[in-house]
Amino acid sequence: MDLRLLRVFKAVVECGGMAAAELELNVGMPTISRQIKDLEERLGLVLCRRGRAGFALTAEGAELYAAALQLLSATTDFRARLEEIHHQIGGDLHLALFEKTVSNSACHIDRALAQFNQAAPGVKLHIHVGTITDIEQGVLSGQFQVGVIPEHRRSESLAYRPLFGEVMHLYAGNGHAWFAADHRWSWADLRNQQLAGLGYHSPNLVLTHRRQLERAATASDQEGVATLILTGCFVGFLPDHYAQPFVEAGRLRAVSVDELSYDCSFACIYRHDPAPTRAAATLVQALEAAHA
Fold first, then answer.
1. Which of 142, 148, 232, 249 is the most buried (most CB within 10 A)?
2. How much is the pLDDT for 84?
């Protein structure tokens, strides 16, 4: 019962309120409200505030949510280990992917998942998309069993398996001075431009520090960076495969391709300890085989 109530609480938090969680949990709000109240009474804590001001976690609720993620992740590992005892690959497997990879012709995650589905049809696969930091922290905490991220720094707690790469070009939007000008710009020239970039630790951020560039605007993902570039006020780096439709539509242009670009290498990550379950190890093998 406690695990069931914790799963309800987790869903309410991640949906942003009880009303929003109705579809996720497939039960009515009165039932959800009663379950949250039951959990609070069992724990002797006030977990959230709900009313006209909206839904908000208390400090105790935020701590319980973090603890619940760890506990529910541990139950997922337990179920997977139990399946292994029965010599079956089953349970739930959570794979976290960095954004905007599916349009990369060098990325064959779809092939890997097809192979994995054939090898482990009893596994229920869950795919998440997030930032590099979210994926790393999720793998370390056990929320995700496997992640795929662009490499930028390594953690001793994680194993890394190289998969594929992508090229990042500098783009200007229609209306920007660099969009129309046919000129070879340098890194020194770029320091005088309004640069848009990702607002968290990534190869993009590493590059800006290494090249002594200042970002005039930041975004939480590459679609946000693209939106800023499309204004014609900013320049920024985007994966060539993601930017291509905008280039073909005449909305973006890659500038100084030979000079103002850099390469990204993507890797599969998982924890050293505990060792990956059979399902996770099977997925890692499929990812490596698909990108060999």
1. 148
2. 67
Three-class SS of residue 129? strand
- Tell me the pairing of strands 195-198 and 252-254: unpaired
Cα of 223 vs its chain's centroid, Å: 13
- What is the β-pairing status of strands 91-98 and 123-130? parallel
How far from 143 is each of 126, 127, 235, 265, CA to CA, in Å? 11, 12, 36, 24
Half-sphere exposure of residue 14: CA atoms within 13 angstroms, side-chain side: 13
Per-residue pLDDT of 167-182, as tens digits, reads 999 999 999 999 987 8
- For β-strands 158-173 and 261-271, DSSP reports them as antiparallel
143 contacts 270 by C-beta, under 8 angstroms: no
Q: Alpha-carbon distance 284 to 161, whole Å?
A: 8
- Residue 17 Cα distances to 24, 190, 277, 286, angstroms: 11, 44, 34, 38
Report the distance separating Cα 216 and Cα 205, nearest Å.
13
pLDDT per residue over 113-144, tens digit each? 999 999 999 899 999 999 999 999 999 989 99
Separation between Cα atoms, residue 182 and residue 172, nearest integer Å:
12
Q: Which two tokens stand for residue 26?
A: 């497939």
pLDDT, one tens digit per residue, over 175-234 is 999 998 788 899 999 999 999 999 888 888 888 889 999 999 999 999 999 999 999 999
